[in-house]
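INFO batch 0412 | record 1 of 1 | parsing
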Amino acid sequence: MSVTTNPASLADRDGLPPDARRWAMLSVAIGVGMASLDTAIANTALPAIAEQLNATPAASVWIINVYQLAMVATLLPFAALGEVIGYRKVAIFGMAMFTLASLACALAWSLPSLVVARLFQGVGGAALMGVNTALLRAIYPAKLAGRGFGFNSLVVATSFAIGPTAASLILSVASWPWLFAINVPLGLLAIVMARRALPATALAGHKIDVLTVVYNMLAFGLLILAFGEGAHLQSWHTLAPEIALTVLFFVLLLRRQAGHSAPMLPVDLFRRPLFALSSLTAMCTFAAQGLAFVSLPFFFEHTLGRSPIETGFLMTPWAVLVAVMAPIAGRLSDKYSPGVLGGIGLALLSSGLVAMLMLPAAPTAFDIGWRMAWCGIGFGFFQAPNLKAIMGSAPKSRAGSASGIVATSRLTGQATGAALVAWCFTISAANGTRYALMLGAAFAGVACIASFSRMAFAAEAD
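INFO prediction complete | emitting tokens
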């Protein structure tokens, strides 16, 4: 089935008809699920990949970091491009790039070659994720927006739930390249579906400024690079120039886009308190998740002596409960304040991470499982309401920029979490996971406060 639209009616259209909506959501679900599955697989399989490539835990974290660096550096340019040429075109490009890069990952022969392939995979993921939420806003009518965001969260969470188990099962019968090869057939299917089903959207009248794109990429890329170098305790001779250049390019970026009606780094949207607080909530929450998801596999395998298969199953309860709670939270967000729903969920997440710190010396699978499930319940209660809060607090004409910030907040948080894990392992190999969980609980606590603070701006509207 293909979706046809009348360009003159795009600006006033409130979502797609039910039949067309289902086909469009299926294409989005395949693409987003593919990227999310890859993230979950890479996180869980990191110790096995590091061992087979003879890489240290701190060095192997760059398999995660470089992917996030590429995504963070290019998310906002792709989101802005989506406003100009259409979200559909950018999403299809992202799926194609991600698929080709996944094949390159599967063919990688060393840590450097895998890192380079992951860099291009991150670019493809940025194009897809940068416009994903804007596409949801075009697919679903406003009154069902929470349901749409809940379904999207369900897809992401289900992919995370499948990821650890899939990684463990694949590693039990094959080598690590097959972890990435699985994306190739999924990517081809996603491209075919997207070409047939994704809707056209109204196009913005402004153009993309190439110099602004360059400043944006350098500013965010250097920021994530500085995170990683700092985490590995590089000397100030290395860090100082990186930090100085990061500040310089952010200043140049802000000056270059000053006065623009639709700035690539959407400072106009950050003037809206609900949008700013929701973005802060997302960044801190995903930092907490990153700290847990990157560090726990090392704890389960190196400290507790669990096998890769056991590690996959121990990671699964978190993602499964997110999948269970996501559609529930999405529907509730159509009736109740995202600030309240997110605040409750993040309080549960923070307490769950504290509970992980209190594991007995020789924990059983049940000891670990109920704590991971508790964290998953909390995270699941946060995600869909927060998406709705961010997208609902931005004008429809700025949906692309808002969608870019959704993904940028998530990836900046995850990159921060991954970098801090590397830092924790660098300062103490034995207690690295414990320090990471402490930081994760703290980030979740800050996010909880930010979420409840949104109640004062619950009535803010476009």
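INFO post-check: Confidence is low (pLDDT under 50) at residues 1-9.
INFO record closed
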